[in-house]
TrEMBL record:
Positions of the HTH araC/xylS-type domain: 190-288
UniProt cross-references to PANTHER family, sorted A to Z: ARAC-FAMILY TRANSCRIPTIONAL REGULATOR, HTH-TYPE TRANSCRIPTIONAL ACTIVATOR RHAS
Protein's name according to its UniProt entry: AraC-like DNA-binding protein
Keywords: DNA-binding, Transcription, Transcription regulation
GO molecular function, one term: sequence-specific DNA binding
SUPFAM superfamilies referenced in this protein's UniProt entry, alphabetically: Homeodomain-like, Regulatory protein AraC
Cited Pfam families: HTH_18 (PF12833)
Annotated organism of origin: Runella defluvii
Length: 293
C-alpha cells in the first residue's frame, strides 16, 4: 500500500510552512517523481530504501537518514520520473526573501539573528546542493514538529518555530562539518576568503567565519594564526583595507561609501584603521595615487 500523509497546518499561524509530507511507497510508481524545482527551502530526509535521484543536475544515491536541502530555485527528482519503493519525509519552508541575488530573510517567526540568517543563505547557496549523510536528527526534529501540530498543546506555536530554527541550525552545522572533513584547511580557508571578499560589508564574527570552515572558534583561530600569521579578525581587516585601497585608486566613491562597502561602521573608524595599517589617511592615499598617475 502506498501512503502519503500531509500534516494539517493552521494557515494563519504557520504560513511559512508550505508543506510537511510523509511518503511511504510499497510499489514502484511510474511518472510520479520528475526532476523539477521544488520551491521554498526544501528539506527531505530518506527513511527507508535507496533512491537514485538527480539533484541540481548531479546524480546522487541516497540511503536512510541522508538529507537533501534545496534552495527555492533548485531541482530534484528521478531521472526516469519513477518513485522507487521506500519512504521519506519532506518539509518546505517559505522564507520572506531568498533568491540567488538576494539575502535570506526567514521571516518574523524565526529567532535566528538576521546576520546569521544572511550567512545561512550564503552557505546554502555556496554549497548547493546540500546533501548530508546520516543526519538522523532531521527526521527526529520533523517528527517533533508534527507532534506539536497535532496535539496543539500550550505554546505550540512558539515550540514549532523553535524546532524549525533548531532544524536549520543543525543542517548548517552539519554541512560545515561535512565540508571540513572532505578537504584540507587550505581549501577551506580559500573558500572562506572568497566568501569574505564577496561580503565585506557583512559584520563578520569569529564564530561565523569558523562556521564556514566547520570548526569551533578556538580551533579555527589557532589554525588561521598558524596558516596566515594573523588572528581571524586582523586577517579580515587586512582584506578590507586592501579592497579599500583598490576602491580609492580606481573609483570616485566617497570615503563614507567606501567605508561602508568594506565593512567599517563609520568613516572615522575607517580612517583610523586605514592610517594605522598604511601610514596614510584615506584622503591622502587617494591624492598620492592620483598624483602618481
Amino acid at each position: 500500500m502506498n501512503k502519503t500523509t500531509l500534516t494539517h497546518l493552521p494557515s494563519s499561524e504557520f504560513s511559512h510552512i508550505r508543506e510537511l509530507v510523509r511518503v511511504k511507497n510499497q510499489t514502484v510508481k511510474l511518472n510520479d517523481w520528475p526532476v523539477q524545482v521544488r520551491g521554498g527551502i526544501y528539506i527531505l530526509c530518506v527513511l527507508e530504501g535507496k533512491y537514485e535521484w538527480i539533484i541540481e543536475h548531479q546524480r546522487y544515491v541516497l540511503y536512510p537518514n541522508d538529507v537533501v536541502v534545496l534552495c527555492p530555485w533548485q531541482q530534484l527528482g528521478s531521472p526516469t520520473n519513477t518513485l522507487e519503493i521506500g519512504s521519506f519525509v519532506w518539509l518546505k519552508l517559505e522564507p520572506t526573501i531568498f533568491e540567488p541575488t538576494k539575502e535570506l530573510q526567514l521571516g518574523s517567526w524565526s529567532a535566528i539573528h538576521e546576520n546569521e540568517q544572511r550567512l545561512m543563505g550564503r552557505l546554502m547557496g555556496t554549497h548547493a546542493p546540500m546533501v548530508l549523510n546520516q543526519l538522523k536528527q532531521v527526521n527526529e526534529l520533523i517528527t517533533k514538529i508534527e507532534q506539536e501540530l497535532k496535539q496543539l498543546e500550550f505554546a505550540y506555536q512558539t515550540r514549532v518555530n523553535q524546532l524549525l530554527d533548531e532544524l536549520l541550525v543543525t543542517i548548517v552545522r552539519q554541512q560545515s562539518q561535512q565540508q571540513n572533513q572532505r578537504r584540507d584547511f587550505s581549501q577551506a580557508f580559500e573558500q572562506l576568503e572568497k566568501m569574505l571578499r564577496q561580503s565585506l560589508d557583512h559584520p563578520w564574527t569569529v564564530e561565523e567565519m569558523a562556521t564556514v570552515v566547520g570548526l569551533g572558534s578556538t580551533a579555527f583561530t589557532e589554525k588561521v594564526k598558524a596558516y596566515s600569521g594573523f588572528s581571524p579578525l586582523n586577517y579580515l581587516i587586512n582584506i578590507r583595507i586592501a579592497e579599500a585601497m583598490r576602491q580609492l585608486r580606481q573609483t570616485d566613491k566617497s570615503l563614507t561609501d567606501i567605508a561602508l562597502d568594506t565593512g567599517f561602521y563609520s568613516s572615522q573608524h575607517f580612517s583610523t584603521t586605514f592610517k594605522k595599517l598604511t601610514g596614510y589617511t584615506p584622503g591622502h592615499y587617494r591624492k598620492r595615487q592620483t598624483g602618481d598617475n
